[in-house]
């Protein structure tokens, strides 16, 4: 029942996004702000739904969580997914720039990108939960992987997000048209099937989302292995990320300390996984640490950009 309701709610939100917030032309700043605020507040408010579900036993509580624990773990998972996916915004901007996709067509690409992301996340989350439950030492593997990811992120050289990069790999596999043909993904001409740059953009965004999921899903599984909490937090974070892209599209370069925030969150989650047999960190403390890491990075980034 709870799973059915979650998917119904997800498709309703997609319908609202497509019918109410979607528009032709360039999305206005005020409209994207309203959509972003609505989805973020809705996601945070869903923690109350989690509380009610676990209070009444309307969802399979495989870990025996109390309603309060379930709500806090949901909020922690949501914030982790949102913060770790923020880097994805930069990559989206580079991909759109590389394939010269006008902003009026970007909404459609991201809309279908969400559908693919949810499908692949469901598979990866299911596999991750099974591994964590069936193989006891998998917790240490995930912890070590997140620690490696954090260190690699810290040591990596700063990327030039302003320089378009276009891969010729996909062009070798598909028959690609030179123009967008009015915003379609594919069309037929002279009996041949052609794909537009819009389709290649969608493929690239789906692929990069899978790469980011390799980091974010183990991080959320460090908070809880409850599949309903993990999947619902993922859904709402991804929905919010799409609208957030349009709101922050021309402000991304101002978040200069985002990398440090994500690094701190990854280190905390990795150490929590590696030391789970020795130290128990209460859910409230974990949520507080994750929230502080996010807020510190955002505040210091905005202060630095305003001072320049």
Question: How would you describe this structure to a colleague?
Answer:
It is a single chain. The protein has one domain. The protein contains ten helices and two strands. It has helices spanning 2-21, 29-55, 67-98, 103-134, 138-155, 169-173, 197-221, 227-248, 258-274, 283-307, and strands at 186-189, 192-195. The protein has a two-stranded antiparallel sheet with strand order 1-2. A hairpin with a 2-residue loop joins strand 1 and strand 2 (192-195). The longest helix has 32 residues, at 67-98. The N and C termini lie far apart (53 Å).
Question: Main traits of this protein?
Answer:
single chain, 308 residues, 10 helices, 72% helix, globular
> How much of the residues is beta strand, in percent?
under 5%
| DSSP, total strands | 2
> How many distinct folded domains?
1
| Alpha-carbon distance between the two ends | 53 Å
Approximate shape: globular
In N-to-C order, the SSE pattern is HHHHHHEEHHHH
Nearest-integer average pLDDT: 82
Low-confidence stretches: 160-166
The largest β sheet comes out as: 2 strands, antiparallel
Structural class: mainly alpha
Task: Please give a quick description of this structure.
With 308 residues, the chain is mainly α. 72% of the residues lie in helices and 3% in strands.
Secondary structure: elements and pairs:
Blueprint lengths: L1 H20 L7 H27 L11 H32 L4 H32 L3 H18 L13 H5 L12 E4 L2 E4 L1 H25 L5 H22 L9 H17 L8 H25 L1
Antiparallel strand pairs: 1-2
Helix pairs in contact: 1-8, 2-3, 2-8, 3-7, 3-8, 3-9, 3-10, 4-7, 4-8, 5-9, 9-10
């Amino acid at each position: 029942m709870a799973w059915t309701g979650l998917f119904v709610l997800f498709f309703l939100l997609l319908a609202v996004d497509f019918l109410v917030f979607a528009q032709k032309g360039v999305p206005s700043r005020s409209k994207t702000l309203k959509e972003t605020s609505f989805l973020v507040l809705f996601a945070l408010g869903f923690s109350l739904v989690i509380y009610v579900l676990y209070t009444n036993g309307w969802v399979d509580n495989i870990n025996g969580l109390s309603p309060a624990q379930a709500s806090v773990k949901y909020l922690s998972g949501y914030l982790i997914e949102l913060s770790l996916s923020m880097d994805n915004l930069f990559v989206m901007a580079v991909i759109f720039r590389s394939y010269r996709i006008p902003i009026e067509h970007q909404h459609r690409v991201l809309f279908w990108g969400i559908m693919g992301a949810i499908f692949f996340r469901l598979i990866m989350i299911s596999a991750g939960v099974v591994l964590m439950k069936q193989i006891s030492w998998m917790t240490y593997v995930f912890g070590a992987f997140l620690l490696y990811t954090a260190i690699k992120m810290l040591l990596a050289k700063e990327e030039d997000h302003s320089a378009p990069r276009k891969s010729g790999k996909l062009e070798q596999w598909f028959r690609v048209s030179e123009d967008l043909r009015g915003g379609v993904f594919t069309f037929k001409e002279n009996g041949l099937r052609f794909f537009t740059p819009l389709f290649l953009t969608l493929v690239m965004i789906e692929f990069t989302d899978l790469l980011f999921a390799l980091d974010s899903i183990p991080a959320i599984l460090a908070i809880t292995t409850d599949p309903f909490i993990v999947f619902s937090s993922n859904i709402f974070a991804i929905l919010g990320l799409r609208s957030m892209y349009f709101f922050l599209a021309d402000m991304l370069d101002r978040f200069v300390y985002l990398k440090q925030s994500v690094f701190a969150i990854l280190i905390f989650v990795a150490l929590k996984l590696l030391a789970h047999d020795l130290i128990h960190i209460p859910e409230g403390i974990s949520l507080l640490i994750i929230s502080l890491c996010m807020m510190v990075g955002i505040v210091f980034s905005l202060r630095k950009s305003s001072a320049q």
